[in-house]
Amino acid sequence: MTSALIVNLVGLLLVAAISWWFWLQPRRHRAEAVNAAEKLRVLVRDGVYEPDRIRLPAGEPATLYFRREDPTPCAEWVLFPDLEVSAQLAVHRDTAVDIPAAEPGEYPFTCQMQMYRGTLVVE
Length: 123
Description:
Elements: H1 2-24, E1 31-33, E2 40-45, E3 48-50, E4 53-56, E5 62-68, E6 77-80, E7 85-88, E8 94-99, E9 105-110, E10 117-122
C-alpha cells in the first residue's frame, strides 16, 4: 500500500511539473519588431518560441523564419488560427512562414497541441 501511495504522489508531481512548464510558467514578453527588409528567426526549442512575442507593422505582409530545433511531433507545426496561416516546420532548417497584412491587434500562434505559444502584435 505504501508503494502505491508513493507512485501516485510521484505521478501527481510530474503532472504538476509538466503543467507548470507548458502553461503556467511566466514567460518573458520581449517583443521583437520586424519590417519587410528584416529576417526574423523564431527558434523552436525546449517548449518555447524564442522570441515568443513579435511586433509587425499593420497593413504590411511579412515573412517569419522558424527554426525548429525540437524533433518532437508537437513542434512540427506552427499555427496562426486568426490569420488562417499554418506551416509544417523542418527540423534544423529555417522554414519561411508568410504572414499576410493584418489589422492592428494581437494574434496568437501555437503548435498543434498548443504547448508552444506566442503572440504576434500588429501595430
